[in-house]
Design goal:
The protein is about 35% helix and about 15% strand. Helix 6 links the parallel strand 5 and strand 6. Phosphoric acid mono(formamide)ester binds next to helix 2.
Length: about 300
């Protein structure tokens, strides 16, 4: 893993994924260490973020490293017409590692090809969000005691939700059953179904999940990704389609946990926040330990 970019979750083998999770567990026990002394990590966010950027920066600060970067490309020379290639070549001269979020699918792969330091993809358009996936896996293993043979419900925007795309690929190592719940226009893309078919992984598609909710081990709620819609009327039609409420959890399994990559808009009612089955804020906290593990392994520490 040393000096390896993390562009897609498929860049890491099963053994490497498990290594990240095991190391994240160690960082959870001992979060403040000085292993990144004299290291400079760049965070380049061409799209807004709260959790990904700040958990990366918290992870780096708690390990004694330094952070440079921008949170808004309008404060960089991108506004003067500088290309992504030139930006990455320049910043890779200033840093030991680059964490990048960009709206274009494939941008992280391209950055990894022109950079002299490893690139960590912090989300490229509707494509992939591999570090979110690793923290999701950490959260699932921590709450379920295992990753194998779980029934995972993905609910909401399965077309544009990059966290869903990365997570289903990673979970495919662990014999899951998937239930995809979405409106017709936000269905899981064909390429992911073909991927699951090729591995003979069972999945079912539904427009509603109230009748089957008692089967779920994990419900992974997602926000309808307004920023990816070409037509806002389409967004308005779908934005309120699934709202998870406390009363819906009455006949669910004891081990059920509700995950959400966040931010939420209204797809999880706030009355659920105090329910012990809700896990999304702790899930976001797990991002610090998981990102510490990813950085330390890529930097060969
Ligand atoms: N989960 C996630 O990517 O959140 P942010 O957009 O706030 O980084």
């Amino acid at each position: 893993m040393k000096n390896k970019s993390l562009v897609s979750i498929t860049d890491f083998s099963l053994e490497e994924i498990l290594k990240v999770l095991d190391r994240a567990k160690e960082f959870e026990k001992n979060t403040n260490q000085n292993i990144l002394k004299n290291k400079v990590i760049a965070t380049l966010f061409f799209e807004p973020s709260t959790r990904t950027r700040l958990s990366f920066e918290s992870a780096i600060n708690r390990l004694g490293g330094r952070v440079i970067g921008f949170t808004d490309p309008s404060s960089s020379s991108v506004t003067k017409g500088e290309t992504l290639k030139d930006t990455i070549k320049t910043v890779s001269n200033y840093s030991d590692l680059i964490v990048m979020r960009h709206p274009l699918e494939g941008s992280a792969k391209y950055a990894s090809e022109v950079s002299s330091v490893p690139i960590i993809n912090a989300g490229d358009g509707a494509n992939q969000h591999p570090t979110q996936t690793l923290l999701d896996l950490y959260s699932i293993r921590k709450t379920q005691g295992k990753l194998e043979n779980l029934n995972i419900f993905f609910v909401g925007d399965l077309k544009y939700g990059r966290t869903v795309h990365s997570l289903l690929m990673a979970m495919s190592h662990f014999k899951p059953i998937f239930n995809f719940i979405s409106p017709e226009r936000l269905k899981i893309p064909e390429e992911y179904k073909m991927f699951l078919d090729s591995l003979k992984i069972k999945y079912f598609e539904h427009e509603s999940f109230t009748d089957i909710i008692s089967e779920a081990d994990i419900i992974y709620m997602t926000r309808v990704q307004k920023e990816r819609f070409a037509d806002l009327i389409d967004y308005e039609r779908t934005k309120n389609i699934y709202i998870l409420k406390n009363e819906m959890l009455k006949n669910t399994k004891d081990n059920l946990k509700i995950l959400h990559p966040l931010p939420r808009v209204n797809e999880i009612d706030i009355d659920l926040d105090e329910n012990p089955k809700s896990y999304y804020f702790t899930q976001a906290l797990n991002g610090v330990f998981t990102r510490q593990a990813i950085i330390s392994l890529i930097m060969g520490l």
